[in-house]
Design goal:
four-stranded antiparallel sheet; 37% helix; alpha/beta; 13 strands; 334 residues; Aspartate Aminotransferase, domain 2
Length: 334
């Protein structure tokens, strides 16, 4: 898997193929909160000057409180994709990597492009001492599979016995903070968090690395100075320090609405999180095409042709639009 991976959010390509203005499409292909909170004012200084240490530290402290990471100070990065591509530098030549799969495809791609041996394992029991670095996306994308803190802490301890590393990607973990390992003190544990998904602001490209000081500093050195923009740091500081109870309520309401629409359409939900649902149907390809003709974009998977992932719709009108499109499709099968 070394070629480019097709991700959600390809509205321009969909509109070019199926017609319609991009702004008139209903994009359900991503797992991003469709109802972002109001943006705070961003001072002109944040746009005018390079982000200084004071601004970065303010964002890091806000992230520490938001993620409850204790002594570990989260490192802001320009999206977690930027640090996924740095992970091969942590793996010695000749060592193997395990990625709990199927999952976000960029992990396997990054290690493969670096010339490392990668095992796509289906269960944690398949991890062996030969695996120097193990990746677990928790909750998983795209099926929402979730591992308990106890399971992952045991895996981190086992990895430590063999001088190995454990990477936990909690990109979709903001709605289930009780499952997070952000506060775990294991020196061989690296936690990735995404800002854009929960806050609905993926366009600013912001994420955080939570790890022991030496590892976090190593990622910072590799990314170089001013890796994250001043406006992004201001947004992180102010939004992470605000009252987010209504954001959580709205996500749950939108998630429940999506579940009802899919159920009313007779679709089989295989899994998911509060930010998306994974549907399994033999008609996935034709259903994807049908919805595109109604200018509704979903996420299909080349490695599993019977899967479609649905993100949250922004409002009740969009729910109705999706249900109407389903009603004109006669081939839904479980």
């Amino acid at each position: 898997m070394t070629g480019p991976i097709q991700h959600g959010g390809g509205l321009a390509a969909a509109a070019q193929r199926y017609g319609g203005r991009i702004e008139d499409w209903l994009d359900l292909s991503t797992g991003i909160n469709p109802c972002p909170p109001d943006l705070p004012d961003i001072p002109m200084r944040a746009w005018h000057r390079l982000p200084d240490q004071e601004r970065e530290m303010a964002a890091r402290e806000a992230a520490r409180r938001f993620y409850c990471s204790g002594e570990r100070l989260p490192l802001p990065v320009p999206g977690t994709q930027s640090v996924i591509q740095l992970l091969p530098r942590l793996v010695p030549a000749g060592a193997r990597v395990a990625v709990l799969s199927p999952t976000y495809g960029e992990y396997v791609r990054a290690f493969t492009l670096a010339g490392l041996a990668v095992d796509a394992v289906s269960d944690l029991s398949e991890v062996t001492p030969a695996h120097h670095l193990v990746v677990v996306v928790n909750p998983n994308n795209p099926d929402g599979r979730n591992h308990s803190r106890a399971e992952l802490q045991a895996l981190a301890a086992e990895r430590a016995e063999h001088d190995g590393l454990l990477v936990i990607d909690e990109a979709f973990g903001d709605m289930t903070p009780e499952d997070s390992l952000a506060a775990d003190a294991s020196p061989n544990l690296i936690v990735f968090r995404s800002f854009g998904k929960f806050f609905g602001l993926a366009g600013i490209r912001l994420g955080f690395v939570i790890a022991e000081h030496g590892l976090a500093a190593q990622f910072g050195d590799w990314l170089g100075p001013w890796a994250v923009s001043g406006p992004a740091l201001v947004l992180a500081e102010r939004l992470m320090s605000s009252d987010l109870s209504q954001v959580r309520v709205q996500i749950r309401q939108r998630s429940e609405a999506l579940g009802r629409v899919l159920g009313d359409a007779g679709l089989t939900v295989r899994g998911g999180t509060d930010l998306f649902r994974l549907v399994e149907t033999e008609a996935a390809a034709s259903l994807h095409d049908h919805l595109c003709r109604h200018h509704i974009l979903t996420r299909k998977f080349d490695y599993q042709p019977h899967w479609l992932r649905f993100g949250l719709a922004p409002d009740e009108a969009s729910d109705s639009r999706l249900l109407t499109a389903f009603s004109t499709f006669s081939r839904i099968q479980s």
